[in-house]
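In response to reviewer comment 3 from the previous cycle, which asked for concrete evidence that the modeling workflow produces usable outputs, we include below a single protein chain processed end to end. The sequence was submitted unchanged, and the resulting structure tokens are shown without manual editing.
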Amino acid sequence: MSAEPAKKFMLDFEKPMFDKPGKSKNVDVNAGEKVDCLDIIADTLVEEGVTEVWCLEGSGLFRFMNPIMKRGIKRITCTNEQELGFAAEAFGRIARRPGVGMIGPGTGVTNLATPLHQARSAQAPMVFIVSDSGEMFDGRYTQQGGVIASEVLSPLLKRPVRRLTQPYSVGYQLKQAFRDSVSPVTGPMGIAVAEELSLFAAGDPATTRAQLANGYAPGTWGQSTTDMFETAADSKTVEAAVRWLLEAERPAMICGEGIWFHDAVAELNEFVHLIGIPCHTRRLARGAISEYDPLNSYGRARGKVLREADRALIMGLGIRYLENQGRPPFWGADTRYIQVQSSPELQCLQMPTEFEMNGNMKLILRAMVDCLKDLKVTGPVQKWEGWRQIVVEAKAKSLETTTARAEALRGHSPLHPDLMGKIIGDWLHKELQDDYTTILGGWSATSFYTDWIRLRTAGRLLDATDAIGLGHPVPMAMGAAMAQNGNKHPVLALMGDGDFFGGSGMAYQTAVKWELPIIGIHVNNNSLCTNCDEVFQACYGPTKDFYKDFMQIYPARIKTDEMLKPMGIHTECVERDTELVPALDRCLASTREGVPAFINVIADPIVNNEIMGLFTAMLYGNIPYNDLTTKAKQYLLEGGYLRKAFVGSAEPNWGKALEIYQETGKVPDKI
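The workflow returned the following structure tokens.
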């Protein structure tokens, strides 16, 4: 009788994954609770320390707000999605944790694109949540279904928007968005929750709390901040870089937003003062080394220092368009560099670099300070004393020159933006001891104002970065004010005509509602780009009407203060330099009473941003020289709008005219 055949071995159930799990001592008593994924979103916001969301409801987003407000999170409703996006990204820059924006589908998505572009450029931590159109409407242009958020917004982000159509991954993807937002390179991140999970399923708990926590363990992962990923540099690289820097004859240092995001201001000051190196600070790091400190190569001294330095240390500064992509004349033609960035992605490969380090600015600076002490450096390097004196003298000379230039403009009408900047800067120093925040906007205004403010600490200056957008100043001022955690120091929103009419004017209704200490300053020069297009293109104006053909605001000297007064804002109109300080005093008093303020400054429409002196040939150079009006020819030659380095971008006779002017001092009428 034959033996029974043995059973074939098919699967190995001895693997550890098949062991019987032990009973957890930390049982979640709420694991079986029936909840909706919208509750999981609200719980994640609480876990992240979110105290307010910037929003504009649309479609399914109405249902999102109920569990969020139930948990005590403030809902700040804005007038459009661009406004809320600017506010959320400014909040993130100042707070060093993600600002949160929430929008509806369709046009809500497209309107958010501009502030997301700016946030990416600024490395601003920001998380947005879209109540996306339902998958059932894709391609049907129903219920705003013609736009899919992930397809529109993903190209603006470092990681694609996750479109969520089922509940199990909502918690994980939102938590991951917060972490991605603060991981190097910091920036905006978002999720899109399809309406199948809000409008068409909300209120019908689909599953349990435990199931909706698929992918991460709620309550065990804390708040996401810009300094949470603490990567240090290799100690041997740090020592080699420090030794190399000590061998310099004319060293320089320049720092950017990474210093602020990584909370490295104290370490930066210790390093700079221990070694005695001239240091320029930009962007959010401006003021990290006080601009009253002799070691801060403030203002126009920056150019002399960076161009003449033989070796330089760059820390936490994204080197892009506004830094001339790492090329002279912003940088020295023969300077060599140490680059320290939060991520290899931020390293500027165009600059001759001896040492590259990537990681947390605070940790790397601490390592550099410790290295200096190990090398027995106990005070400013003596051989650099003459170089440091050159920096001090360069700052003094620059201040003397610009002060004389601005003071000569007193009594002139209309008010020159340079004198306006000086008056405001002096007032900020005298009345507020430099304790304020500024949002930069305005084409001509920014060019001059930044020369006159002096900052003592970082995190006080925000701009539109390389995105160079319109309409951001007041929305960003709202975000900055909210991020101050109860500090009521004023936020100045400097704006031009494009900013005022492009969103900042109407954003005031939100500022009034929340009693934010904003002082808006509208540099009203009657144009979206001063008068350049009118001057250079006047020969081609088809209607011969100044207002219709060009970028002029109609009517001239419009009373924007009167436009805003019905909102409950304290408003002022200034036409002469003697009126500005009293107006600022009244505005400050108003903000201290919880009423935002606004000054309409009637400014000189001729004065321009110095960028036009660089780019005029590229912008208008296809116009034959002989077609230009007399005024345009004077601008080009007498006004310095045509630079020799750029004549190759223009019609050949522009270059010939420049040669004649340089030889004779006369503006040729015909070539």
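Residues 235-394 form a domain with the Rossmann fold fold (CATH 3.40.50.1220). We consider this sufficient to address the reviewer's concern, and the full set will be provided in the supplementary archive.
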